[in-house]
Write a structure and sequence with these properties.
mainly alpha
């Protein structure tokens, strides 16, 4: 029979494996997507072609690394939240689900909004950042008096 410490170690190993697997999948998908977008930009944009290689590399790596960390955090949070639900018997799990539904029906609009923000905080942060960067880049790339490298630096 396994001791509590051995169970704890097995649980930690399972958590680490889940975080690493999901984070690497997200990193790979984002890296491939960013590389494809970079290739398209290189093909169709003379301004992008003249951008230094270090900036192009940053355009690919920055979102990839960010997604890696954010996905790891999401997986860890989901794992910890659902850890005890999987250990319960079917009847106990049904009772807990019923209690959760009853609590959801009593929530106010503000409580639901706060729960939504807490559940999707990384998506909200990422899309806000992406919108700001896109807007800044759009604004700066329309200016004719600046060199491309100056535009990239100012957009950041």
């Amino acid at each position: 029979m396994a001791t509590r410490y051995e169970k704890h170690l097995a649980e930690q190993k399972e958590l680490e494996d889940a975080i690493f697997r999901e984070s690497m999948l997200a990193l790979g998908a984002t890296f491939v997507g960013a590389s494809a977008l970079s290739a398209l930009a290189y093909r169709f944009s003379p301004a992008y072609r003249s951008t230094p290689i270090s900036a192009k590399t940053a355009f690919i790596l920055a979102p990839s690394i960010g997604v890696f960390y954010v996905r790891g955090e999401q997986v860890g949070t989901q794992f910890r939240r659902n850890k005890f639900a999987y250990q319960l018997e079917g009847e106990e799990r049904a009772q807990i689900e019923e209690r959760k539904r009853a609590q959801e029906s009593r929530k106010t609009t503000m409580d639901r909004a706060a729960a939504f923000v807490m559940e999707n905080q990384w998506k909200i942060l990422g899309y806000t950042w992406l919108t700001g960067m896109g807007g800044a880049a759009f604004y700066l790339y329309r200016k004719k008096g600046l060199a491309t490298s100056q535009k990239v630096v100012q957009a950041r």
